[in-house]
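Protein 1 of 2
SEQ + STRUCT:
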Amino acid sequence: RDALHAAISEDDGRTWIGYRELILNEDRNRGDFASCAKRDMSVHQTQIAELPEGKILISLGQGVSRRLLSFDPKWLYEAKHSVDFSKGLDSVTTHQYIKGIKGHCAFNRIRGAELLTDRKSKTNTVSVKICNPMDKRLVIPNQGLVWNFPNADSARLTVKIKFPKGSKGGRISLLDRWVNASDKWSHHYAMCNLTLDSSLAVSKKAGFTPGKWHELRFDWANVTGAEKGASFCSVYLDNVKLTAKLPLARTTANGISYIHFISSDDADQHGFLINNINLIHVNDNVKGARNRKRF
């Protein structure tokens, strides 16, 4: 229970708009998460009230973790989102679990994927390194990163990505739900997946150059109306479109709202680096777009 989401419906709950992370557990990376706490540290047990000016007030957490926050419903209708990691990892999930259940049925944790700053660049570019050091202390050694964006029936998502020489690759998944960053089985319930091995090939004619930054782009359209197996997501590498589209591995009722990056299952100290993830809805057919101005 490390993520709490908010969504809004305009058809009595049949479909939902937003699926945005309202809050991530502030204690989610604590090394003593389970062993030190004699309290519940989750972001659940919610109570919600509408304020007179149209804002939403929510009470969440339990005991000394209880807190209040408010938000504007307009936020759920936003059609774009981005992250460049210049403010750290507060807006993403990266933690991993240390073996051994302790305390209140929980695991102690480590942060996982780490921030790197390129001091040679003029802008001190900040990236996240995702690798697999095969740490035997952990339940699952694969490092990963999970990022949320406004749920999209049709959208364009871009990410800057670099695979150092010696990288074993990794996997990128698009989903309609939060997953643990180290969940190496998330591809089974993702809408689509792009898996890369040590060859770094994305098709028979295209692939990543070790040590070079590339722009990877995903364009999907009308995912909520697509049937399983349909070819629905186009992939571009440095603005060059790959011949084959990614197939829809699992259907979704309300669109895609997450991207998950995870390292190779093999031992891999090199891994890959990411920065500058951008998402934008690409047409006016996104659920709720017609009513964005009504609040």
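Protein 2 of 2
SEQ + STRUCT:
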Amino acid sequence: MRLAIASLLLLIASPASGEPVVGADCALNGFALRGNVQVVESFPDITVQIVQSFPDLKVKRVENFPDDCGEWRFVESFPDFKIQIVSSFPDLKIEYVDSFPGLP
């Protein structure tokens, strides 16, 4: 009985229940989703899936001053956080946009 209740609570608390993955402060797992980003093959801070619809975050690639939510500047060193691109089971789903980055 306790196992069934614990499983039900985990299901309710999962992001699939309609709860947003990205917080109102534009952070995920303690990482602000803005700034310098490095794409890595292993040991990422966040796994990311690129989608065309229903993203958790809209991302705009910028060359300077990635200060706002969803503005990412891709770098090879000294990142604010590291991502790994995956095709399934991501921590975060993103859509690349040319304008209006941030929470959908």
